[in-house]
């Protein structure tokens, strides 16, 4: 992926990128932005500092749940990649609020990319749609993301920072903890019967990391994009495909009524929303060529 040079207001120096929430995807971003960027990584765990330093990032100790620890963030970075999730409860995202307050005090940030979720749309009945569709969050988890998106876009309008929101579906990769269907197949977790099944969307973790970097360079101001691949499969067909590729038995199919009695509320929430995401903005505006355009290719190769 060839990207143009980033030109901050204070030219003639290497720009600084702050990664907030430097988990699996953030770690995949690191080698993509070095050595062009000086990279800072915010972590609430001092124990992670050696790992981040070894990977080329400068660790900063701070906690989004403790705003007093974020005071010095504002003047440190030209760009921010915000991948930290909201809290586990409530309809608001106070973590994003604390981060933006800290960033606003410095007035340096020119670009901000946020990793949101496609869950903000709620159930679309299997419809295929682009980013102009109105959000309709069906869970508090999704409502927290809608709140974060609103805060970020307001921050962009108020400060002039170029904010890009990536709405992300299910992330997978063979070396991602909890991110490969093999684990669920080995547990024998059921999927819905064909008449009750839902469409689901996916992105390989490596392609998501590349989308984050492309958005730092090419994202339009206050723009939303679907960070999704080209796959249009129902959830059951996805796990059938994964089972065949892994040499495992296909999962049992059960009705929605049986699923409601036997599966966890969290799993049922994912099985209650059906949508297909149009990813043309990702490919046209960010000019991103997916390495794994379908889950079939991703599961076979990576």
Automatic annotation (TrEMBL):
GO terms for cellular component: cytoplasm. It comes from the Bacteria. Residues 96-220 form the NAD-dependent epimerase/dehydratase domain. SUPFAM superfamilies: NAD(P)-binding Rossmann-fold domains. InterPro entries: Epimerase_deHydtase (IPR001509), NAD(P)-bd_dom_sf (IPR036291), NAD(P)-dependent_oxidoreduct (IPR051783). Pfam families: Epimerase. This is SDR family oxidoreductase. It comes from Rubrivivax rivuli.
